[in-house]
Amino acid sequence: VFAGMSGSAIENFSCVIYNIFLMNCTWQSGRDAPADTQYFLYWQKSRNEEEMECELYTKDENCRNVGCIFQNVSIGIEKAYFLVNGSSKDSLIQFYDKYIDLYKIEKLMPPSNITVNCDEIKNDCIIQWQRPQISHSNKDMCFKYEINIKYK
């Protein structure tokens, strides 16, 4: 199952979704990967969808792919499948794969349209805001907020 040179697969793979529809994935080269190793990321949103290769890689100082930015990402209910394989002239490179629930890696935007109305006579304030936009389908999700009020 793990064909390829030991220690050549990527390490520290992680992805985050931000600004509602952008996904950034990063990784580090394998400890024992040959110097000419190049990595390629593929992902599949669900079993019914086609596998897509990264179109916008980020590179390290050796021009090796160490990350990818995906645009127009939407979050489904199935776990997404990620596969990073590599190639080298010198040896076979181990692949890395992982299933991820995309809704768990979404960084939410801050609330918008924040208003504060204070009544000095009653000595109280009403603070209102709109919930941030989210990309996944569970629109009625419960949000918890923390308000830090500092008096001057």
TrEMBL record:
<dbReference type="InterPro" id="IPR015321">
    <property type="entry name" value="TypeI_recpt_CBD"/>
</dbReference>
<keyword id="KW-0675">Receptor</keyword>
<keyword id="KW-0325">Glycoprotein</keyword>
<dbReference type="GO" id="GO:0009897">
    <property type="term" value="C:external side of plasma membrane"/>
</dbReference>
<dbReference type="InterPro" id="IPR013783">
    <property type="entry name" value="Ig-like_fold"/>
</dbReference>
<keyword id="KW-0812">Transmembrane</keyword>
<dbReference type="GO" id="GO:0004896">
    <property type="term" value="F:cytokine receptor activity"/>
</dbReference>
<keyword id="KW-1133">Transmembrane helix</keyword>
<dbReference type="InterPro" id="IPR036116">
    <property type="entry name" value="FN3_sf"/>
</dbReference>
<dbReference type="Pfam" id="PF09240">
    <property type="entry name" value="IL6Ra-bind"/>
</dbReference>
<protein>
    <submittedName>
        <fullName>CSF2R factor</fullName>
    </submittedName>
</protein>
<keyword id="KW-0732">Signal</keyword>
<keyword id="KW-0472">Membrane</keyword>
<dbReference type="InterPro" id="IPR003532">
    <property type="entry name" value="Short_hematopoietin_rcpt_2_CS"/>
</dbReference>
<feature type="domain" description="Type I cytokine receptor cytokine-binding">
    <location>
        <begin position="12"/>
        <end position="105"/>
    </location>
</feature>
